[in-house]
Amino acid sequence: MTKALRPEVLTPLEAAADEATYGGKAAQLSAALRAGLPVPGGFALGWESVRAVVAGSADLGPVMAGETCGPWAVRSSAVGEDSAGASFAGTHLSVLGVVGADALLDAVRRVHASALDPGAIAYREQHDLDPAPRMAVVLQEMVASEVAGVLFTRHPLTGASERLIEASWGLGEVVVSGQVTPDQYRLSADGAPLERTPGEKDLALLLGPDGVVAEHDVEPGLVEALCLDDARLAALHRLALACDEVYGVPDHDIEFAFVGERLYLLQRRPITHG
């Protein structure tokens, strides 16, 4: 019989400040939540607890019995991930639309296994990181985003002091995975729009009422229609300024989502080149 995790092991995300225990992604989100930024709530599971779950000596089910059963986004938060020197962006697995204790347990195991993917191992070697990964996990409440994407507060290629935004319909995974050509927006450092380039957004990932994430064809009239108006661009600029205050630096790589006009911060990491 497996031993159930103690309730205190599954830490509320706002309390997961120790990067050495909960990893970079959790620590960044924890700081944002404590500062009142619009981060979906959730939990963090430290790397030692993740190992216990994978080894079968701990079980998430009893802990989650009294909590909402999803849908969750189960994301990697390895120690050293989302740091100034190594982002691991796109290297480790995220599992979306996770509903129920059994599916949650499976998702944690799959995220842990992604640290042993050959690409992840090669990335660690390239950045002179510990070859034995310490994989913590973030369990984040999913939002049924209508528009989502990424915001860089400095151009990641040119280094220019401007905001670069890429966005598309539905969940932001279609942007970060390159499944669509997103809209691209350039703003000055003070938030003034400089350029808007429509993308070809013919596919959207949408979160259904049952928690299932599914691909949908975008209506023809919306494929090349801009998905961010002036109000949403201004909201993103204000979020970037708020991140300056929280993290004490001006360079941010932000994943965001809009539900109507409500903006959510899903992830934040320093801008890196690798």
Structure description:
There is one protein chain. This protein has 274 residues and is an alpha+beta fold. The chain has two domains: 7-141, Dna Ligase, domain 1; 147-269, ATP-grasp fold, B domain (D-amino Acid Aminotransferase, Chain A, domain 1), CATH 3.30.470. It is 27% helix and 28% strand. The protein has seven helices and 13 strands. The protein has helices spanning 19-34, 47-55, 61-64, 101-114, 118-126, 173-176, 230-247, and strands at residues 10-12, 42-45, 72-78, 94-98, 135-141, 147-152, 162-169, 183-188, 193-197, 203-207, 213-217, 253-259, 262-269. A six-stranded antiparallel sheet has the order 9-8-7-6-12-13. β8 and β9 (193-197) form a beta hairpin. α2 packs across α4 (101-114). The radius of gyration is 18 Å and the shape is globular.
**Residue fraction in strands:** 25-35%
In this structure, how is the largest beta sheet organized? Answer: 6 strands, antiparallel
Shape: globular
- Kindly state the percentage of residues in helix: 25-40%
Averaging pLDDT over every residue, what do you get?
Answer: 87
The fold-level CATH name of the largest domain is Dna Ligase, domain 1
Low-confidence stretches: 1-7
Tally the helices. 7
Structural class: alpha+beta
How many discrete domains? 2
What is the straight-line distance between the termini? 43 Å
Please give the order of strands in the largest beta sheet: 9-8-7-6-12-13
CATH architectural label of the largest domain: 2-Layer Sandwich
- List how many beta strands DSSP finds: 13
Oligomeric state, counting identical vs distinct chains: single chain
Q: Radius of gyration over alpha carbons?
A: 18 Å
